[in-house]
Amino acid sequence: MENCATAGLHDTLTSRKAEEAAAWLESLVGPLGISGHPSEKVFISRLRNGLILCNAINKVHPGAVPKVVENHTPLQSQPLPAYQYFENVRNFLVAVEELKVPAFETSDLERGNLTTTLQYLLELCIYDTLEAGSAAKVVDCILALKLYNECKQINGGNGFYKSIRSPMVMHPANVNNSQSLSSDSCRRLDMPATSEKQPPANVEIQKLSDFIAKLLIEHMADTKENINDNLLMSFRTGNMDKEKVLSKIMVGCFEDKLQNNFPENFLKERSKSQAHSTLVPSEDSSKFKDYEDLKSLLTKTKTEFEDLQSMFQTDLRELRYQLQEMSAAALEYHRVLKENRNLCNMVQDLKGNIRVYCRIRPAITGKKSNVIYFVGKDGSLVILDPLKPRKDGRKKFQFNQVFGPTATQDEVYNDTQPLIRSVMDGYNVCIFAYGQTGLGKTYTMSGPSGGSIKDMGINYMALNDLFQISKERKEVINYDIQVQMVEIYNEQVRDLLSGDTSATKYPFTFLEIWSCSGDSGLSLPDARMYTVMSTTDVFNLMKLGEVNRVVSSTAVNHRSSGHAKTLMFARVSPEGDSFGQTISTLQFAQRVSTVELGAARVNKESSEIMQLKEQVENLRKALASKQPRSLPEKPKAVSEQTPPRMWRLSIENGSNMKSQTVNLGDRKGSKTPSLPNRSRRLSLEGPRYSKKDNFQEKVAPDDISMPSCFEAVTLLKYGQSQDPEAKSKMNGHSSFASSTMQVYNLPTTRSPSSSYRKRSVKTHCRTQIPLKNNLISSANGKGSQIKKSLQTIGKLINGSEKRAMRRQSLTGFQASGSNRSHDSRRNTRTYPPDNKAMALTQDKVKNIQ
Ligand SMILES: Nc1ncnc2c1ncn2[C@@H]1O[C@H](COP(=O)(O)OP(=O)(O)OP(=O)(O)O)[C@@H](O)[C@H]1O
Whose CA is nearest to atom 1 of ligand 1? Predict the structure, then answer.
């Protein structure tokens, strides 16, 4: 058995070194009693009692071990008791240390006791490398002592020793690469450890495993020890490669040992080796610092990234809250805005849908007399008859507002603005100026010709405002603003933007403007409609219309929608020589201010509903007059049902379901209706004048010097969008905005019956622009009503020809003859003597002629 084991060690470095060590010891202390090729185990067993070692060191260094425990028994006899050789070995190790020669441990000599059993082999294998040298350490120690001795001899008795490590200990796996160590031990011992290559640990493990497996198999075969019958059977039958199977078993066992039981330094080495394999620079590498820096940078970046991530999450949460708040605020804002608009319109309604503002033109230089006695901030105005400078010459009027001669355009517009803005909320608005020639109608409505921006009149400012609003609301509503400009003269409507100078004669005598719904739209038939984008566009069109303008007359409508809010500017002069005109204008304005139209309504109703309402109204009238009649087939029959009053001019609220046909002129001498029951109609019929009436009504209609001129702007909203998208954009509000702006201008004539010319600029503001063709074609059905409304305005101011004649007979005013031709009426127009503007107007008229 010893031979078998020895045979396995012959090729190893340990064995060769052991031979060398044994040979040297023999040269010192004599034969050791071992063969020429002793195994490590045998060699160690001979040294176990420490005698040889102590004797050898005493030879090298006499007295190194002063007292050696001698064993007088034969070498091959039973070993000494442990305490005996332990003392020798201990003394040897102390001496070795004193000589600074690498020592070993006493336990290293114990290995030799584990022999012949499988346990030994396993243990040997497992600890092999580990302690490859328990025996090797002993051998190394002896060889180091040999070296010491050689050096001592060379140096003349002074031995030396460099601290060296056993090659076996340092490089336990480096078995095959140390072939020359024994032949040149001195040189080899000085070699730096780092110069030697270290094969990967797993290769070494594999080699070791193979080796152990081989040993195991040989041992098992020799001892016939059967570990596993099946395994051996497999080996015998050749089904399995014995060495491979055992090697596999041992590798598993070995790896387990490595993980759990290996010495810490080995594991460190191993992890270091693994670290190398992952290209991590070694600690002494110059790149190691960079590596460490990068590592710390990575850690720092990771931390920063996590911080940023959490900040981002926080910001995101914050943003979400803010967004929710903003969204809630926006919703609230729109709600408040809507409520504000509603309240604003309510206020407008409460103020009355016909409002009369009086504006006094500044006195012209040289005119000393002043009829304006008092201008109150509450809308009161007192004028003084220059011929009766006493108290009884004063006449008081009450309007919604009175603007004195110093009032600026801005101040006037500020009061007008809410009314104009309500156009965009669906209300019809009509604004017109009324008064004697040269008193500033054009100035108020358009501004002075060639004036600066601050002089701009209501037309400009209103359009600017409307375009501005449409711009602000474009996210919600798309307004399509379109313009028509027509002239009405002698019952003819003429499109001033078409360039066609021929007027169209319409087979009706009434013109009416009312708010339409449905897709019928509101436009004058056959009049071209222009889409405009800005105020400038509108006024460019107006300039074009001016060129084509002619005078026209129209009949009077006794019905009106003239669902609208109306603002009248009564223009008066402060000069005494205009007192007659002034009082006439004021009286008329006063009368207008007593008219009630009922609450203006947003136009949402369809044309069918409007017609049905008219029919209901007609039936109510029929019932009221106790003259039951059959239901008229068409709404236009209303005119036939109304008692033919020649001088009757009525403005009524057609939407009111109650009868509203009572009119001032129809009072039959009774008292003026109290406010709640005030007439919905304005009658200028003279004979019903009552002396008992209050101040305003003391002015008999026939005393009214009818306006010679007036200018008007009508802004209407109407219609209903057919576009579902538009509807949804308007929050279910089905109507869309449309506005009509009309400017009326009468030839300057003192005759109330004179014809007037009317310029009409109509703007449609629509959401989600419907097809223009639809709009225009659908307007045909309402054309007559539109024109009727226009005529209503004219008639409201002028009355009919007969009315004019009647007035003339009553007041003695030299009215232009109603039968006179248009041209002749124009020629009778009179101007204040020193009024340049009037002269300009006259020139303008001449040009037209
Ligand atoms: N408030 C005012 N401040 C300064 N000038 C004014 C004012 N009102 C009118 N005027 C001036 O009076 C003159 C006549 O005004 P304007 O042409 O507007 O009168 P009108 O009523 O339109 O006349 P017509 O009916 O003849 O056309 C113009 O020169 C105008 O600048």
Answer: 361
Count the residues in the chain: 849
Establish whether 133 is an annotated binding residue. Answer: no
Q: Is 437 annotated as a binding residue?
A: yes
pLDDT tens readout for residues 340-364: 877 877 776 776 677 889 999 888 7
Ligand 1 centre and the CA of 475: distance in Å? 40
User: Which class for 339: exposed (0-12), middle (13-18), buried (19 or more C-beta within 10 A)?
Assistant: exposed
- Ligand 1 mutation pick, 442, 445, 710, max ligand atoms within 8 A of CB: 442
Write out the two tokens for 727. 């509807």
Best residue for ligand 1 mutational test, from 364, 413, 439, 842 (most atoms within 8 Å of Cβ): 439
Residues 213 and 154 reside in one and the same domain: no
Neighbours of 678 (CB within 10 A): 15
On whether 435 is known to bind a ligand per the annotation, the reply is yes
Provide ipTM, 2 decimals: 0.98
| pTM score of the predicted model | 0.47
345 occurs within a structural domain: no
Task: Please report whether residue 337 resides in a domain.
Answer: no
Are residues 628 and 741 located together in one domain of the fold?
Answer: yes
How many domains are there within the chain?
3
Quick one: 190 and 209 in the same domain? no
Same domain, residue pair 152 and 210: no
439 annotated to bind ligand: yes
Query: Ligand 1 test: best mutation among 361, 546, 571, most atoms within 8 Å of CB?
Result: 361
Question: What backbone phi and psi angles, to 5 degrees, belong to 344?
Answer: -60, -45
Question: Other CB atoms closer than 10 Å to residue 694's CB: what's the count?
Answer: 10
Task: Write the pLDDT tens digit of every residue in 424-467.
Answer: 777 777 788 888 778 888 888 888 877 787 888 888 888 888 88
Domain limits at 649? 352-819
- Choose among 803, 806, 784: nearest CA to 488: 784
Among residues 160, 177, 197, the one where a domain terminates is 197
